Amino acid sequence: MKVVHSSTYDIKIGKCSLQTIQHSSYSAIAILVDEHTKTNCLDIFLKESQINPKLIIEICSGEEHKNISSCEQIWQQLTNAKFDRKSLLINLGGGVIGDMGGFAASCYKRGIDFIQVPTTLLAMVDASVGGKLGIDFDNLKNQIGLFKYPKGVYIYPLFLKTLSDRQVLSGYAEIVKHALIADKNYCHMLMETSIEKINWEETIHHSINLKNDIVESDPFEENKRKILNFGHTLGHAIESFYLKKEKDILHGEAIALGMYLETELSPLNIEKKKEIQDYLKSNFNLVDCPSLNQLLPFLKHDKKNEYDNINFSLLDDIGSCSYNNDLSIEKIKAIF
Ligand SMILES: NC(=O)c1ccc[n+]([C@@H]2O[C@H](COP(=O)([O-])OP(=O)(O)OC[C@H]3O[C@@H](n4cnc5c(N)ncnc54)[C@H](O)[C@@H]3O)[C@@H](O)[C@H]2O)c1
After folding, report:
1. Are 252 and 169 a contacting pair, CB within 8 Å?
2. Active-site residue flag, 151
């Protein structure tokens, strides 16, 4: 088993990780699932962890359910089952379950403990690390939320076996992002390796280490943590645009296109831009790009913006990223 130490919690990765969950001190335990993690992951989780939950809370899967009405269902069920402040919520699922379950736990009775058991690649390498929690509101991604660390993150890579190739590729986009912003050698190694040949335990571990180092240096995203937003300014706008259109698009798919576009905005020479963009184009199924006019309403709501400019984190090399690049709409127009 591999362990990454964060300031207040550990991220444990490997086959035995679930066996190490500390749960004996809680008055009651609930497990939050959606219909897919209930079918594919819950039995394995219960068998490996030996946890005997008082309550299983099932929420409909999908980004469209990452909202306040799903939170109400969670709070109602916890209340009905008389969960007190010494209870624990275990979030067994992808980034939607992790973000929303962590948020719901942090508000219930002013906050109960929660742990993350991510079951998608995206949640393993990204969503479950770093303490960002929240829900969508008014068609805006993660509009309501907070920062709070879980009691622990337990990653069991075997959960990936039941995940579709499309979902795996979506998570892989965040692995590539971590490499592009923070580790040149690792990035070249990924660019030369086909996804079928990846050793997931090693790759998840390395990717989490990169993210964790960045988060630890700036937990509340005042400075350096902003580099994790590479690909996300346009990526989130693309995701919000399609969410409103009720088109099925995955987070990593939006981010892959966001990284492609933000590479174009980055102060890189033409060869380097081409190297990165060719890689993204041939390894990810880039979704159709909406027009700038279609994205502008969402870009203007981005939480990072100040004044009228749009805030970007941009690559200044492979493995190196700068933040607080405020670009005017005119400048962004040039790449569309
Ligand atoms: N908090 C953060 O720092 C952070 C970072 C990145 C993304 N996110 C958020 O994460 C969310 C996306 O997460 P996601 O890509 O994991 O999507 P998701 O949670 O919607 O999961 C994807 C689908 O896979 C299913 N699933 C989950 N595990 C499975 C398994 N082992 N086998 C079969 N099916 C399984 C789910 O039921 C769902 O249908 C977005 O809401 C995004 O905003 C948060």
Report:
1. yes
2. no
Can you tell me which residue has the tokens 């929303």?
Answer: 100
Distance CA 102, CA 43 (A): 22
The CATH number of the domain holding residue 33 is 3.40.50.1970
Q: Tens digit of pLDDT for each residue in 37-79?
A: 999 999 999 999 999 999 999 999 998 899 999 999 999 999 9
Q: Any catalytic annotation for residue 110?
A: yes
94 CA from centroid of ligand 1 (Å): 3
Q: Pick from 143, 162, 181: which residue ends a domain?
A: 162
> Per the structure block, which two tokens stand in for 17?
């990780």
- CA-CA distance, 128 to 73, in Å (whole number)? 22
> 12-24: per-residue pLDDT in tens?
999 899 999 999 9
Given this model, what pLDDT does residue 141 score?
Answer: 82
Residue span of the structural domain in which 126 resides: 2-162
Total domains, the chain = 2
Residues 190 and 68 both lie in one domain: no
Is a pLDDT exceeding 90 seen at residue 304? no
